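User: Predict the complex.
Assistant: Input components as received:
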Amino acid sequence: MSRASDLAIRTRGLRKVFSGKVAVRNLTLDVSRGEVFGFLGPNGAGKSTSVKMLLGLVFPTSGEAEILGRPAGDVKTRSKVGFLPEHFRFYDWLTSTELLKLHARLYGMSHVMLRERVPALLDLVGLTPHRDKPLRDFSKGMLQRIGLAQALLNEPDLIFLDEPTSGLDPFGRRLVRDIIKAQRDRGATVLLNSHLLGEVEITCDRVAFIRDGEVVETRQLNGETEEQITVSIRAVNVNAEVVNGLSQWTPSVRVDGERLTLTLSSSALLPEVVRYLVAKAADVYEVTPQRLSLEERFLEIVGSDGGL
Amino acid sequence: MGVWIMAGVTFREAARKKMLWMALAAGGAFLILFGTGLHFQAKDFAAHGMSPVLRREISFAMLTMGLYAVDLLAVLMTILTSVDTLSGEIASGTIQAVATKPVPRWQVLVGKWFGFVGMLTAYIAIMVGGVNAVTYVMAGVTARHLIRGCLLMWMESLVLLSVTFAFATYFSTLTSGVLALGLHGLAFLGGWIEQFGALTQTQRAVSVGVVASVLMPSEALWRRAAFEMQSPLANAMRISPFSTLSVPSKAMVFYAALYLAIALVVAIRRFSQRDL
């Protein structure tokens, strides 16, 4: 269990109801500092509303939310937060340089700081050749890039990226991936809302599946996992009594010839299961943990209706 | 600090989107038309050998008419330019990138308000100054209490601006515009009912006008401004078609100031507490 001071995001029973319609039911979530955390769920699952509550844009109906150890919406804390909205729009008469300067001033950055930071960020997102172009002449992808640059202006400790790769070509997507990695390397926490599961799988340390405004499951993507796994075991000399005995670890065992398929609540249980089979004189030839891919798990949670 | 950043960007938006320049170009066309009318009238006065007193009073009536038109333009300019700034940015999500910066929401709203105040101040000063300058050059007449009248017209704009902001924190752009214009229309109609009531000495009709001014004091401010600016003779004889048989009291001006402050506070409170 993480201490509260180690957490970048902490919510308890967060709930939002819009005109009688529940958008977020009961969001309880801990995100550690320095973590790249993916927020996955079908359309209308409450992801964007949750992010808006954390940023203080939307007021919760009930529950608690803290970011960087302070209540969500705290004005001072916002100086350490960056945010790229899902559809970044801004005054289209501003040039990209003017936009970044305006946001830098809203962050309270000095003229000296913004003189260095603005060209560096334009360079980072590949918009230096378009620094004097008004936003009204920008494509959707270019708007995403300048939106990303404004989210990084203040070198934030916590960055919210809501669908950052929507509208980006493969080069843009790679750029976002590299930027997220660079932010993690400097110790920032990133919360990533995305439908692109491949992107999430590559970039995130951990993900939460959210449906109907509740966290259905969290999953570690890099390193050890404590989450449920499915195991395929090829063994002979396994009679019905031995199969029944497996029920102490799992309620679901499928037998298909020499192959047993069972689901365990944790990979830590696997050695016990193997020891049990060997003790019961079964000849074990193969043990293969089959972790569900992110996409399979996503589809399992969303269901065939696509969450609609 | 956030207030001045937002005020600056709002003022620049008006200039960059050509709103201010177009309004001033239209205002310039209005002044040319006004000056041309005055020019031909002055020529006719000379040709008919009209008495200086009558000439002066007709020129004053022309001046009041010109200021009345400026007042109408300022009312429309106030509502039409400001109505989209909050509700439009909330609806499009543009406000999200600003509202997540370390600037309290009240500063965002007050900054935008000051931006429009700057633009409207420039517009009213140029237009009122222009009408007076043209009348002075053509007919040798200027408003009696120019600064006082100008400030009252400015205050009318600020009342409407604050009310438009308050509506825009609750409703969509279109609804807010309709409500703000409708409320001013109510005050306008009430003002005329009050005038006719005073003319026919019908106290209950005058009361209807006063109630309309309590609901929205914008028109009352114009009638007070007209009273301050037109000639003493017209005020004494009560003959001008643009004002003002029943003059709104100073208490009504204080009430309008209070109304303005309350509308702004309502806008700030609602904007600070609503979901964006």
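The radius of gyration of chain B is 20 Å.
Let me know if you want any component modeled separately.
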